[in-house]
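Record Amine oxidase domain-containing protein, 536 aa.
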Amino acid sequence: MLSIFEGTLSLILCILSNPWYLAAVLASCLSLHIIAVHFWGKKIGVNPLATDFRQPTKPCVIDIKARDAVLKQRFKASQVPEKLDVIVIGSGAGGLTAAVLLSRAGLKVLVLEQHDQAGGCCHTFVEKGFEFDTGIHYVGKLQDGTVNRTLLDQLTCGQLRWAPLDDEFDHIALGDTAKARIYKMKSGDERYVQNLIDLFPEEKDAISKYMELVKDASASMFGLSLLKILPRYIARFLVFTGLYKLVLKCYRRGYTDKTLQEVLDGLTNNKELKLVLSYICGDYGVVPKDVSFILHAAVIDHYIKGAFYPVGGTSEIAYHMIQSIEKFGGRVMVQAPVTKILCDDKGRVNGVKVGKNDFEIHASYIISDAGVMNTFNTLLPETVAKASFVYPMVTKVGPSVSYMTTFIGIEGSSTDLKLPASNIWLHKTDDLNKSFELFLNTKPEDIEDMKIFFGFISFPSAKDPEWEKRFPGKSSALVITLAKWDWFSHWKDEKVRHRGEHYEGIKNLLGRQMWQQCLDLFPQLDGKVLSGMSTR
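=>
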């Protein structure tokens, strides 16, 4: 009996000392699982990517009515398809992606969007003769042949075209904008690194080590998804035993446990370099002391080879994805606010309620692209939400940071005004943790006296090579900063555009401060505002 115990213990110690043995065993189990499913399991559905759906690219449709016919299909109960398989709540990029793939797999899909047009952060709006984007300012890894490009081509039937941003795709303005120090991030693995070394020659070793960690951590990112892809019994075994921390590099090397701040503090004492290496935190909305290094590394690696912008504007993404959904019998409807997710007696979802009249629509599967907070705190029945293993994490993490944008219409073309096809990140100080904390701890009664520490400037008109065809002699600018819902919660029950002078006064006050920061960096825009500022 003792010898059996000793033998088992020796085997376990051997596996623990060499995780590759365990990986080989798991690979064998997975292979056997695939064989078993293939011959005796449930029939596998249609592969939505088995066929190449790309078609010759057509010119951008610029007729507003034609675009609205796709992007603004208003909800009507009489037009809801029968015998639905899937309902997707929300028409952001994630929801539309799921809808396209499931439609191609043979399922009947309905997407419901509460806004008056589809697209989520991909949507655009036209005001006073200017078009503005709202959330997609640049996308990485879209060179020909990349996985991202291949997937987006398939999702849009090859109709999306992508224009590269300037070689120096991100600019960092550090300090007071009137006399800011400018750092520019260059495209290309080697050029990106060499540029940093040229800016901080005394920190060459720290920069080289940082980039090694970025590459290694981003390459291990797949491990975060693997536990969801593996058969459930294998995933549970790995988690229960803790062996996933040995098998998956992202856990084994601590990339999920270490924060960005911890990594930077271990590399250098140069505060300005730390700022330059973490400037992009606005993309994911978490400060260096709180964000896991692996997330930051993935974002840096996403853009390091260069950034792109959709030709024709960001609404092109939703415009073509919706047509892909409709091609296979699905629908995308707007002004369709889902008020509740319906569940049966066993807590299994089976439908939704829509609108003020609580019109019920049923389907076998419900996918929520409405955000985890909305889904678990508002849409799901409380008993079902609290029974989920996700619920404790939702309450622990809390809502993400919000942003406020000032939209400006400008007289003159981007070429004449020499506007860059790049992003400008504004950082008043080199301590992101402190500046974000001070800013977001501002009380509602103090926001009129608040000084903005962080900002982001984008010129969509300079990024889109076809902008001039649609809006000749005009340019658009966006200036973005952090915001808190609490600052404006007093007006939460008031109708849009009917919230009173005080509300509009606060927005305009902050908007003018944001615009002045833009003018400090681009003085040629002074006196060129045509549409007036709209802050949202």
